[in-house]
Amino acid sequence: MSINTKIRTQDYVQLTRLYDTIFFILQSLKSVLSSKKMKKPAILTQKSLRFFIVLSSLPLFGIVAAFGIAPNSSFLEELPVQKVILNLPLPDITQIDNTDITLWRQERIQRGDTSASLLARLEVNYQDTTNFLLEANNIKAMRKLVPGKAIHAQTTTSGQLLKLRYFLSNEEQFLIERTADTFKLSEQSVKMETQIHMKSGVIDSSLFAATDNAGVPDSVATQIVDIFSSDIDFHRDLHQGDRFTVVYESLYANGELVQAGRVLAVEFINQKKSYQALYFQKNAENGGYYAPDGKSLRKTFLRSPLAFSRISSGFSNSRLHPVLKTWRSHNGIDYAAPTGTQIKATSDGKVAFSGWQNGYGNLIILQHQGQYSTAYGHLSSFTKGLHKGQRVNQGDVIGYVGATGMATGPHLHYEFRINGAQKDPLRVAMPAATPLTTQNMTAFHENTEPLMNRLNMLRDVSLAFLD
């Protein structure tokens, strides 16, 4: 019995000391919390921190017992608490070695680009640019850069080139990798992954400003213009408050975005009128855009041969000629655009003429089915290889905007002719394309229902957000 009493007394002394330690730590923690409320920096003393670490290794029951049997300890209330404020020096970031930091940059090939201009935009240093141009001199892919394609470069912060990827197509990439002071060049197959994106936006100033704000690539914006070009005049009909919702594909390789793909579904609300389009592929070769009821949106003729521009001079029976300074009819539409802007065939047809013709300067005439033909004047140049008798499809690039012939500035003069007589293309009713057959309608509804659901969901969310 005496032994047990002795053990309990020793336990009591140890637990009392343990309690003192705990109380001291709690007071220190209280001081820290108080200092945070007062927004003054405070930390625990090294001594209390050591006690706290030791305490955390003690059995839990010891701590509970200390609180359970602690004596009246009001005398501990006056225990002094010490605050220690330390100024911790920050590292000198100028001394940090950042030579191992690498960056991935991406650029789109623009018309007129060279390998040197691309490397300059990718911020590759002079020495590596020189070495690369020497190595890539015999690489066909780098001598024929395709506008719109993506170039990816991995560099150090000093501009040292480590890797460069050029996606030649959806199945092939050109790869350069650094090995010591030289570059290893190769062509590799690419496994593309398709992801679907959904975006929406509101027109405030222009279509491309709205698509930029919504994070929609320019190639997708251009597709929207092409899809609705027969129903909406994007040169004159856009109004502030017009809205769009779009579902489109993006192609990725090795987890990196290569390029935006095809628009799958889109709605454009122009002056409170809704226009909807769904992509449907009838077979391996023929695909196009249709309204939800199956009506084809592809007209025989596009309203405009330029993706996006403005009309500088309309169709008129009397106009002061800017060069001749005489009043005469203007039997076409002039589209102001920078030199080099792509010109598209407004319909399927055959090249009837390609060359120089008096005031037209460089001129292309396309003969279409039946009584229709179109003319494209003042071109700076023709698409390489274009020749008389060649067949072209609607949307094919046939030439580039210029100021040849009797022109005061770069623009396209476009004529729409019926039996050789010029007509106003903005007023003539264009013939519609053939709609889907009864056999195709079942497959059309099955394939486009998920796209329509995405479009409706995105539109409802956008409208709710705007409200």
What does this structure look like?
- This protein folds into four domains: 77 residues, no CATH class; 86 residues, Nuclear Transport Factor 2, Chain: A; 135 residues, Nuclear Transport Factor 2, Chain: A (Roll), CATH 3.10.450.350; 114 residues, Glucose Permease (Domain IIA), CATH 2.70.70.
- The N terminus is likely disordered.
- The chain is an alpha+beta fold.
- It contains nine helices and 22 strands.
- 25% of the residues are buried.
- The protein is globular, with a radius of gyration of 36 Å.
List keywords for this structure.
467 residues; alpha+beta; Nuclear Transport Factor 2, Chain: A; 4 domains; ten-stranded antiparallel β-sheet; 9 helices
